[in-house]
Design goal:
Length: about 180
Amino acid sequence: MVGARRASWRIVSSIEQKEETRGNADHVSAIKGYRAKIEAELSSICGDILDVLEQKLVPSASAAESKVFYLKMKGDYHRYLAEFRAGDDRKDSAENTLSAYKAAQDIATAELPPTHPIRLGLALNFSVFYYEILNSPDQACTLAKQWLSYQLSILMRPATIMINQPARNQQGLDPQMKN
């Protein structure tokens, strides 16, 4: 439901910009009205979901996986609001996003394995937040690279052990058996 409206908002905003460039004031006026309607729907849906997350799901979550999932989701929905809001509303949504993602990251780092899918999804969405909302592509890339290099180091450990194991095994063999 939210994904379709976010996609609609992006398309309508793009069309609005094109029509403004062309100087079609009548079209721009109609498009702005439709965009405002989409924004109101998004605000309502995101607000309802955030209410459930903040009042019920986050406080009642006991398992680390659930906490991280709900906090990530909370950050995601605040990020969706920040995508179309302006001024202080955008700033508030961005701050709420950052707070939720950081809380989720703290728990994920302490309690979830590095390759856990929710932890990986959090890293991706956190990077998107830095790129799209904070307009900080350098920070987004740095964060994504840190997570990726960390994940690769974790995933490569078994391969390194397997590569080194035959050499270790040969060291203990009887010299006559090596020939």
